[in-house]
Amino acid sequence: MTFPRMLSCLLAPMLVLSMHDSAASETPRPAYAWSTDEAFDPGTIPAYGGKHDAVYARIDADIDAHVAHLQRWVRQRSISAQDDGIRDMARLLADDLHALGFAEVEVVETPGHPGVLGWYDAGAERTLVVYMMYDVQPIEENWRIDDPFAGELVEHELGTVLMARGATNQKGPQRAFLNAVDAMIATHGTLPVNLYVVAEGEEELGSPNFGKVIEPWLDRLRKADGAFFPMNIQMADGKASLNLGVKGIVYFELEAKGGEWGGPSKAEIHGSMKALVDSPTLRLVQAIASMTTPDGNTIVIPGYYDAVAVPTVEQQRLVNALARDANDAAVQRALGVSRWIGGMEGREAIVRNLFDPTLNVDGLWSGYTGEGVKTILPHMATAKIDSRLPPGLEPEASYRMIRGHLDANGFDEIELRPMSGYPAASTSVDAPLVQAFLGVFNKYGVDTRVSPWLAGSAPFYQFTRTLGLPFVFGGLGHGAGAHAPDEYMLIRPAQGVGAAGLADIEKSYVDILHALSEGL
Amino acid sequence: MTFPRMLSCLLAPMLVLSMHDSAASETPRPAYAWSTDEAFDPGTIPAYGGKHDAVYARIDADIDAHVAHLQRWVRQRSISAQDDGIRDMARLLADDLHALGFAEVEVVETPGHPGVLGWYDAGAERTLVVYMMYDVQPIEENWRIDDPFAGELVEHELGTVLMARGATNQKGPQRAFLNAVDAMIATHGTLPVNLYVVAEGEEELGSPNFGKVIEPWLDRLRKADGAFFPMNIQMADGKASLNLGVKGIVYFELEAKGGEWGGPSKAEIHGSMKALVDSPTLRLVQAIASMTTPDGNTIVIPGYYDAVAVPTVEQQRLVNALARDANDAAVQRALGVSRWIGGMEGREAIVRNLFDPTLNVDGLWSGYTGEGVKTILPHMATAKIDSRLPPGLEPEASYRMIRGHLDANGFDEIELRPMSGYPAASTSVDAPLVQAFLGVFNKYGVDTRVSPWLAGSAPFYQFTRTLGLPFVFGGLGHGAGAHAPDEYMLIRPAQGVGAAGLADIEKSYVDILHALSEGL
After folding, report:
1. How far apart are alpha carbons A504 and A497 in whole angstroms?
2. CATH match of B44-244+427-519 with 3.40.920.10
3. Which residues of chain B have pLDDT under 70?
4. pLDDT digits over A30-52, tens only?
5. What pTM was computed for the model?
6. What is the DSSP letter of B31?
7. What distance in Å separates the CA atoms of residue B478 and residue B233, rounded to the nearest whole number?
8. Which site in A253, B240, B350, B401 is 20 to 30 Å from B173, CA atoms measured?
9. What DSSP line would sit under B476-511, residue for residue?
């Protein structure tokens, strides 16, 4: 029996080697078990039936003044990255809240730009926290208008738009919401719900001090019934995408630098020294490479996929609905991407996009990056890396596993510098707050796609976790060009354009506050 | 017997995995067999005994005019990278050769800067090819003198120096050689050897057209007896390092870019898309990482070490001599390096530096490299990489193995753009040309270290392979600051400084030409 025994022993290492060569099969991305093919249908939620004709009429009568409020907001510069107009905008917001009848308004100092807190006591049973960001992105080249802060109304193929920095991200929808509040108070003298406004001036900087902004009122805010961020979520054709959360993120730098371990420590040296001198650049490359399979698509850091949650039936139903009208080719065309990873499409692509943690190199640099030939052995190399965290994978765990993996593989000398980190946030589609929104959307005949969360990240855990509230970011309305030239918000749609204009946006906010007061 | 059989089968894959984890032991760098501990001693070569007092006296009498020639050369700008003064310098060199009595002088046009060819027919038996570069590096910041082209004599701790761009790299030693030629012709009306001068104006650009420069006279040049590049190779204390060759090099860019295979093809996209979209940056990182062990120090491209030559007894004797007064700590201090790879030192470090092929990342860049957080999935990533080639490893073979390795590992989409490539060059220490140099060095009491070649690269294969000649780059004299501020050449050494001054440099060149005429 010697021969068969030898054979099986020879085969064993071959199998292991073959598994190692195809690392993807050794450490696959999660397989997501699926238990239902039912699809969520927002049309089954009864359309909101309330009528508030007096307020609607007031909005129609005041619409020019309401447009002027949006213009006033965008004309006030508030570029957080350049500290341009920030305090004036914080003051403008605080003054507007005062003028609307907010009993308490505070400008909250932070280590960065100030926040603004407001409290409107309607004596109502329900309380809504309204999140606002009053800062905007810097200005890029190539705007078609001379001054992105002029607050111009521009004739656009979709109708009349407000074209300005901040028009849709996020001053337009936020002031539209306050216009609705204004019309309700002007008509009835009060609101159907109490309101907190919690505003920051550093959203475009990653909200580093938002925790400080809400801290003074933390106990009060936690007693609210839900949180909301006004946002234009309609496409030009009127279809809306409501995302019930966001992924978390860790964003960090990895850096290799010569030192006691080896490599040039003071400056680059001649490239011919490589036979004698360790290369920090190659060490960084090896460290990054050690974190994924050769295709760059599967994370091989031990345990990294372990905490990823199994899709619930509710999430499966949402994904099934999204998959029904998925158009991968159109999204790929828009992005300039020929194919998704491995040629996947449809539901698989949606599930992976939502549930897979990612590891992505945002930037990478070392040594000589100019034209032509320069032979140096650089003394340092740096990478910017982000990992998107679905619900279940905490930033602390992510950092711990990454550092542990580097150390376990001998990359002790690679410095890991955390720059940002926060967990995912998500709210159930069954939450009364979400149901109220969808009911109002149905009243306006909006075809709404609902996703359990976005693949992108935002620190909305501050609402779902710090405050413990259901959280919705959305609303009728259409805009485009956030972080880009020619940013706009649609004010008066042209004939046949499906997206709501300013008057309908404001009326839908009126309905939402009433729906919340009734059903939250 | 079932249990032991299972056990051995379980152990087998563990062993394989453990081998894979320690890739260095799987694919080690070459082990260099050593057969002798004898050390080469240049002191055993008889000191050159010729006396040429009339020429020496002429040099001493004319030394101020000779210094003025060096000043005239460095005052003529000739920055090849900026095409600054190039044609004027080519003309100046051609005119000087004419004035010295070179019968044929040609300015050779190339696709780049022109070359200069000169022929001095002494009617002698022996013929020497003298290589010259007439271009210089651009000017950096932080020179202590106002004008690096003023040709100033400066009082330095070592004595009087000519401080200027090109003073030591390479106008000073080249014109010093022509001063010696001038003195010999002035004294005796002719030279003991015939001379070719082959000069280029693109050495600092990597000599892309040097082949074109020598092409018109190729057949004539191949009939010469040796080739020589005047160079100051003394340290300030007088010790000299004579290197009998150089490594070759391939220098190339690797680039990953989104395309049909996947990834963003037009521009960066949002970083959160990583779950769906391949990352060109991670692919480049993986491709580079696949070429070395995790420590970045052993090349795992199949066959890459196979062509490396075994050190000959002659090379072993040279290395043994170098190892006797190796001072790793001093070199490491100068470079700002704490240790050589793996803590090696002495002879092992010398052997690896000379004989190991290298793989070095000179530069690397992708995506966002600014301050702070920006989350993008870049559409391209680029690396500049060089590999130093010891004798035996040809650039064509190197490129073929690298491309083959990338393809074999599935990195077909990674573009490899060759930017440079040439083989090593080396001349035997036993060549009469080398023996003549060492004999003259011994006459001047110079303590000379002789290395089989440099770890650095230069296209000297044009002499050893294209022309098929023994080649020496060296000479008495001391300078510093090539490619750096405050470049100088020592003209009149201070008391106690061991390096030769201009007069002795020129006298040694007189001796070398005579030694060649007698012994070549």
Report:
1. 13
2. no
3. 1-27, 520
4. 999 999 999 999 999 999 999 99
5. 0.89
6. P
7. 6
8. B350
9. S--EE-TTSTT-EEEEEEPTT--S--HHHHHHHHHH
C-alpha distance from A351 to closest chain B C-alpha (Å): 10
In degrees, rounded to 5, the angle at the alpha carbon of residue A40 between the alpha carbons of residues A38 and A43 is 130
B12: nearest CB among A12, A271, A289? A12
CA distance B134 to B370: 40
* A152-156 vs A159-163, strand pairing mode: antiparallel
Tell me whether A459 touches chain B (CB under 8 Å).
no
What are the chain B neighbours of A275 within 8 Å (beta carbons)? 341, 352-354, 356, 358, 388, 455
| Closest residue in chain A to residue B354, using alpha carbons only | A275
Tokens, residue B199 = 């000069």
Count of A-B CB contacts under 8 Å: 313
d(CA A275, CA B298): 9
Are A389 and A411 in contact by the 8 Å Cβ rule? The answer is: no
Please identify which residue in the block is written with the tokens 């279940």: A392
Please tell me which of the candidates B261, B285, B368 has its beta carbon nearest to residue A285.
B285
Instruction: Say if the Cβ atoms of A364 and B367 lie within 8 Å.
Output: yes
Q: Using CA atoms, how far apart are residues B368 and B347, in angstroms rounded to an integer?
A: 44
Residue with tokens 């100068």, as numbered in its chain: B334
Which tokens hold the place of B133?
A: 């570069």
Query: Does A373 sit within 8 Å of B420, measured CB to CB?
Result: yes
Q: What is the pLDDT of residues A434-447, one digit of tens each?
A: 999 999 999 999 99
Residue A141 has a pLDDT of 86
Q: Do A296 and B288 touch (CB under 8 A)?
A: no
Contact at CB, A386 and B263, closer than 8 angstroms: no
Question: What is residue B334's predicted lDDT score, i.e. its pLDDT?
Answer: 93
> From the CB of residue A504, how many other CB atoms can be counted at a distance below 10 Å?
16
DSSP A431: S
Query: Measured between CB atoms, does B251 come within 8 Å of chain A?
Result: yes
Residues of chain A with pLDDT under 70: 1-27, 520
Q: Which is nearest to A70 in space by CA: A158, A160, A130, A194?
A: A160
How many angstroms separate the CA of residue B454 from the nearest CA in chain A?
A: 9
Instruction: Find the CB nearest B277 among A337, A367, A409.
Output: A337
CB-based contacts of A403: which residues, under 8 Å, 6+ apart? A416
Which residue has tokens 């249908």?
Answer: A41
Q: Which fold has domain B248-308+356-422?
A: Alpha-Beta Plaits (3.30.70)
pLDDT for A27: 52
Give the separation between CA B26 and CA B18, rounded to whole angstroms. 10
Long-range contacts of A443-447 (CB under 8 A, 24+ apart): A443/A47, A443/A48, A443/A49, A443/A508, A443/A511, A444/A476, A444/A500, A444/A504, A444/A508, A445/A238, A446/A234, A446/A238, A446/A239, A446/A240, A446/A476, A447/A238, A447/A239, A447/A240
Chain position carrying tokens 């010790």: B239
Asked if residue A336 lies in contact with residue B269, where contact means CB atoms within 8 angstroms, the answer is yes
The residue extents of the domains of chain B are 44-244+427-519, 248-308+356-422
What is the number of residues in chain B?
A: 520
The answer to whether residue A336 neighbours chain B at the CB level (below 8 Å) is yes
CA distance A444 to chain B (A): 31
Closest-CA distance, B278 to chain A, in angstroms, reads 6
Residue with tokens 């992510």: A398
pLDDT at B6: 32
